[in-house]
Amino acid sequence: MPNPAGYTGIVMGVVNHIYKTAVAALASLVLVTGGALAQDDSNASLLDRLKGADPADAKRIEREIRMEWAKSGSPAMDLLLKRGRDALEAGDVDVAIGHLSALTDHAPDFAEGWHTRAMVFFRTEEFGLALYDLEQTLALNPQHYAAIYGLGVVMESLDKTDEAFRLYEMVLDINPNHEEAKAAVERLRTRVSGTDI
Asked: What average pLDDT does range 71-95 have in this prediction?
């Protein structure tokens, strides 16, 4: 008679393999493209200014970029984003996921909706869901340095140190003043083997 527990082990092994393959594919996509896909012209000029900014100006430009990224083009969708962020800040992840899922359902081309929901999923340790949402974010906005940083954090959480290190470096290529990415690069520098640093 077949052993159901044996099937469970096989299924979990297959799921784990698929998950690892998907994670590697997403990280490879971001690393290979280097964010070289098309982007909105208004964001491009802000990102160009950010790249050459001193730390004080960088903070102001980052705020401008976040404000641009938060514009969906629809007051109703902007309200869902605000409510999702407010719920996340209040620690009410179920409400945040509800608002942000409605947002991604109704505005699937709005990168910031996906990115914000990825942050919620990461906080709840739903790494597969976070990775999916980060993939959607980066497909829509390859220069979204916060999403690339988030992908690096997920890779580091999964002990993919080399990939995380390269992703953090990509963040610094876009935003040289990103403090968390700088700290991550310094923290991982001695652990990364075979990487030109």
From this structure: 97
* Euclidean distance between CA atoms 51 and 165, whole angstroms: 19
What is the pTM assigned to this prediction?
A: 0.77
Contacts of 140 (CB under 8 A, 6+ apart): 109, 110, 111, 114
pLDDT band at 194 (very low <50, low <70, confident <90, very high): low
pLDDT band at 135 (very low <50, low <70, confident <90, very high): very high
User: Around Cβ 64, how many Cβ atoms within 10 Å?
Assistant: 14
DSSP secondary structure letters along the chain: ---HHHHHHHHHHHHHHHHHHHHHHHHHHHHHHTT-S---HHHHHHHHHHHT--HHHHHHHHHHHHHHHT--S-HHHHHHHHHHHHHHHTT-HHHHHHHHHHHHHH-TT-HHHHHHHHHHHHHTT-HHHHHHHHHHHHHH-TT-HHHHHHHHHHHHHTT-HHHHHHHHHHHHHH-TT-HHHHHHHHHHHTT--S---
The distance between the two most distant Cα atoms of the chain, rounded to a whole number of Å, is: 69
Write the pLDDT tens digit of every residue in 18-61. 445 445 555 555 544 444 333 456 678 899 999 999 999 999 99
Superfamily of domain 4-189: Tetratricopeptide repeat domain (1.25.40.10)
